[in-house]
């Protein structure tokens, strides 16, 4: 009965190629591609195609006539794209390439005796049909500084330029998409094939029912899924129907021949059978169909790829569709010539600011919008450079409004204008404007952090820009009253909620914990002192004063409370955050203080305590900074602090930039203390924990907690530690923001997870580990636990359950609520059991020689255990792996194990794992030895042999693994490792045809030696294997033919019966052995 194939080529690579060809990509074989590369694997440009296309898409228009570019200029253009500045670094070269293909070049040429510079392009962005689109596979590229090659599975070319690199994986392997991404990242290393990736704009990982994409040099955590979004169900159905039809559309005969001619006949037969019935659409089909349609791909490259702080980024699906949905809306005008704007709600951390930049670029270049003036209003200083960089390819200058007056001047000018400004400067300009600007082509894009445009300021904006189009970007849910205001100038355009972002992996979940100080008040002296200072006041004044100083806000500023919280924050950070690394960056924290004075006091106390480093970032003070109230004591603490900062940094701008840069990129400061600054518009992926010591409300709270939801390598979640009581638990938060009729409940869903909800899973996780050992009768007998775990399936369940329990225990031990509410006896039990389980895990991994597979969080768990679990100075550590081919090292490791059975388990397990590494080098011998070892393990565990016999046999088989293959082999094969493997194959495959006699053994030996000689005669040149012969189908074809001829002659000479199907099997298996031996 026919069954599906899980081979990578069958299930992923060939289906991808076929779909791409049906989508309009012309297939060229690896041989044809190499010919177009001039026969050089160090060259990745299809130069014959590139040259032809450059001649076709570039002409010079001069005095009403068209002229071609000279051959010299065409060659110079090829030289420019070939010689990218890789010496300046891989990223710099890729950026230079991107600017080259989007901006183009200018070349001088004499036309009719007149010498001028003329624009030259590599891709026709405006007319996609003028470009050529090719796809090739197994694209062999010479590695840097090596004679070896890497071969990406699929490469897409536009005009002969490689722009997309694809790696395909079988879905049956573990974590296939991760494997494909890791392969891309390996290829982009210095010793990889950067010569190819310096040109690529997209990389993809495909595994049938999983698919992700990213741009060049993107870390694994930032690779994305794509979801095609539709306005109607009918639109979605039509899209799926079209994809289904393309998936099942047969290739034209000539294209099918080209695709399959270099493959084995059985591959073509398999696909013929597969195509007899309709095939289902897969996730990889959806990604390819969504992104790789030529028009879409050009759109993504030109309009949706940009650089943010030097990092190349490509759009996520929600950004792409938000921009196009907005464009569809704003290009239309109503009967009065007005354009409707609206609000784009994309949750914090989903690239909202970059979406605004992408939209601005498309507005500026849209053919239906004439002479636009675009104002980008942000609260991010660092966006200016990025906006200027993006508009370079549109050849539109960007102006930065330095003051409100300057902004008015810029708006009064003629021509296309792109203006960037900060929110407070924009407000000043609106307030200063004496006359309005009545152009319908003024677009105001506001990345709001303060919601001010929904109030009276919105009315002022509309007076100044009566025909302007307003588009607001928000990262937090709109309150219902805000939605009604927003509706008056366009309503919601696009929504990407918090739940969407968490599901897509665009942000990390947030865990929340409330903490409280136990406050003791010495009431009598306080009341006496209060009566004295308030004596001049009226009863009403006294009551007002008392209310003010007894409020939570005032208590938050009490020195004892600040000091107590500084200790708690220092302890929490030191024990739970300080040792965490996200990639190469330390995890950091952000402390939100009630006011500037309190922020500076937190800094002083945390520095005195000395466990962690911190800095304060505040806005400049004025001369009356601390005189906020007639009754409030004044001091010059803030002014002194500010003077010290200015002496150190020179200016407020340098002070802010330097601290932010150090926080993001250096080890210190570990915590940055703020009041209002950095609660919005601040993106630091390594920002992990937010300590709240003041009240925050509504969207301000949600914006603040989103500071710690950014993605980073190994970052599972962000932490919110709340000392004020902003959200005592998740239920209360949801009730506050949705039950009070402020927010729609659906908008808030998924924002935070209370840390206590996670910790509630700890008892269950603890029980699940113990449940594995229900059958162990003597709970004090440690070897009995190890014996139970000899079953590999049970062992891996144990590893997973222990990891889950350890992770939750780490979280629990960082929680004040858990520590304070859980009996000490129970905490001690958890710690003791964790120590036992981790020790048992070490023991069984050593005994059964399992590979230590660390999850990203496990180094953190180990540090937690080192801190929280000690016994008389003992520290739990995981040992180094032993080299299984170093006998002395092996013996030393074995001696650490006490019982004979445990030693035997260890030797047997490591021998089986060593066999698995080498099994394909001599499959017959090693499979037989593996079976013997497994039978011996079974005999011992069924009590058919003693511990001593078990250990002796384990040692005997290990010796056979290292030394036994050369025993009892025919003399002509002594020392011939490959010949012995083929000899074993001959005896196994022809065991029914060669009689067991001295003569038959000689025939088998002769056959093995002859096959080995045939293979070596073809794959060796000058005593060395031909480079990359294992991937050259012509060499493999010659081997098969010559072995067939040799065996046919031998069969005739010796008069033996060799069935053709067994000959075919021997040839296939013999070539597999040779591919491992002769490389």
TrEMBL record:
MF (Gene Ontology): ATP binding; DNA binding; type I site-specific deoxyribonuclease activity
Role this protein plays: Subunit R is required for both nuclease and ATPase activities, but not for modification.
Keyword rRNA-binding: no
Matching PROSITE patterns: HELICASE_ATP_BIND_1
Top enzyme category: hydrolase
Pfam families: HSDR_N (PF04313), SWI2_SNF2 (PF18766), T1R_D3-like (PF22679), T1RH-like_C (PF11867)
Gene source species: Flavobacterium beibuense F44-8
Domain annotation Helicase ATP-binding: ranges: 333-495
GO BP, one annotated term: DNA restriction-modification system
Name by which UniProt lists this protein: Type I restriction enzyme endonuclease subunit
Catalysed reactions, as listed in the record: Endonucleolytic cleavage of DNA to give random double-stranded fragments with terminal 5'-phosphates, ATP is simultaneously hydrolyzed
Annotated keywords: ATP-binding, DNA-binding, Endonuclease, Hydrolase, Nuclease, Nucleotide-binding, Restriction system
Family: Belongs to the HsdR family.
EC number: 3.1.21.3
InterPro entries (UniProt xref): Helicase_ATP-bd, HsdR_RecA-like_helicase_dom_2, P-loop_NTPase, Restrct_endonuc_type1_HsdR_N, Restrct_endonuc_typeI_HsdR, SWI2_SNF2, T1RH-like_C, Type-I_R_enzyme_R_subunit
Subunit structure: The type I restriction/modification system is composed of three polypeptides R, M and S.
